[in-house]
Amino acid sequence: MSLVGGQSGVFFEAIKNFLGPIYPLLLDDKITEVLINGPNDIFVEIGGKLQRSSAKFETDDDLMAAVNAIAQSVGRRINDDEPRLDARLPDGSRVHVVIPPCARNGATVAIRKFFKKKITFKQYIQWKAITQDAANFLEICMFLGKNVLVSGGTGSGKTTLLGLLCSRIPKGQRVIVIEDASELTIEYEHVVRFETRMADEQGHGEVSMQDLLKSSLRLRPDRIIVGEVRGAEGFELIQAMNTGHKGCLGTIHSNSPADALVRLEALAMGGDNKISEKALQYSIASAIDIVIQISRLSDGSRRITHISEIRGLDAEYNYMVTPIYELKSLVRAPDGTMRGDIEPLGELPSFIDEIEDNKIPFPRSKFFSKKAS
Ligand SMILES: Nc1ncnc2c1ncn2[C@@H]1O[C@H](COP(=O)(O)OP(=O)(O)O)[C@@H](O)[C@H]1O
Ligand SMILES: [Mg+2]
Asked: Ligand 2 being an ion, which residues bring their Cβ within 5 A of it?
C-alpha cells in the first residue's frame, strides 16, 4: 500500500488527516505527479500523461491545511512573508508550492513523486527508448570514459538515463555525485554523494553546486556526476572535463544537442569567472564528447532521439555536432503509440580506433543503417 517502500507510506500516514483528498493520490503507485491548482482543480500524471482527478478540497482552508502540514513536516513554513516553498519530502518526492495572492487559482502545488524503481538497460530497450546497438554504443562511451551530457526537457527522463549510464562505469573508480536534491538512483560500489543547501531565512549558509563541485575536485574523483547543470557550476564542470577528469556526466535542460552546448555556454558565462566567449566555446567543444538527447513524446513515452558526437568548433566558432544515432522517423500507430527506432547515420565516431584497440566487439557495421545497405 505504500508508495516507495515503507518510508513514504509512514510519512504520509502521519499527516493523513490534513492531506484529505490527495492522500490516496500520493499512495497510488500509478500516479507519478500530483498537480493542484487551487482546491477544485487537481490533475495527476499517469503513464506520462496528465489527466484531471475527481479529487477536490472542500475549501481553500482545507487546501492550506494540507500545504501547511507538508511544509511543517519538513521543518519549513509558508506564509505571506514566504509565499513559496521548494522542498524535498523524506521519501525523495519534490514539492513546490506558491500560495495566494501570487497564485491566482488558489494554493498551487506540484508534487513529483520519487520512484526508487530500478530501471535497467534491458527495460529501456523493451520500452523502445533505445535500440540494443545504440545502448551498446553508450556502454562503450562509458567504458572509454567519454564526457557525456544528457539533454532534454522537464520530465523527459534525463535523471533516469543518467542513473543508467552510471551503472556502466567500469569497476574500481571513485564516483562523486552532486545534486540539488538527491534523486539519482545509482548502483555503484564507491560513490560519494553531495546535495546543495539553500540559504536560511537570514540568507546564510548556502552551499551551491559550484561550491560542491570545487570541493569534489579536491576529493580525488575519478568521475564527477552533476545531476543537473543549471547555473555557474557549468564552468567548473567544463574545467574538470578539460583537466583530465575523464568520464564526467551531467544533464542539462535543452531541446537539441546543439542547443545543449549553447545553454551550457550561457550558464558557464553566468558565473564570475573571467574567460572570453571564444575561450569558453573552445573549452566546451573540447570538453564534451557526446550529447544524448531524450524527449517525451506525445504518447507519454520517453525516447532517445539523438546520440551526437561533438567534434570541436568550425571556423565560425559553431559547435560541430555530428549525430551518430538519430531517431529519423516516427509514426503514430492506430493505438496512438508512437513507433520508430533510433538509427545509425553512417558516421564512425572519431574514437573508432579506441574501440578497436580495446578489442570491443562492436564492428564498424553497427554505425551503418541496415536499411541503407
Ligand atoms: N524511457 C522511459 N520510458 C518511460 N518512462 C520513463 C523513461 N525514462 C524515465 N521515465 C519516467 O519519467 C519520469 C521522469 O523521469 P526523470 O528521469 O526524473 O526526468 P527528468 O530528469 O528529465 O526530469 C519518471 O517517472 C521516470 O520513471
Ligand atoms: Mg531530473
From this structure: 158-159
CA 137 – CA 122 distance, rounded (Å) = 14
pTM for this model (two decimals): 0.84
User: Ligand 2 centroid vs 159 CA: distance in angstroms?
Assistant: 4
In this predicted model, what pLDDT tens digit does every residue of 187-214 receive, in sequence order? Answer: 899 999 999 988 777 788 899 999 999 9
Q: Domains of the chain by range and CATH?
A: 6-112 (3.30.450.90), 121-367 (3.40.50.300)
Cell of residue 149, nine digits: 551530457
pLDDT at 329 over 70: yes
Going 228 to 229 to 230 to 231, the CA torsion angle's sign is positive
Q: Which of 16, 30, 7 is closest to 70 using CA atoms? A: 16
What are the CA-CA distances from residue 105 to residues 9, 51, 60, 118 (Å)? 29, 18, 10, 37
Question: Which residue's CA is minimally distant from atom 25 of ligand 1?
Answer: 32
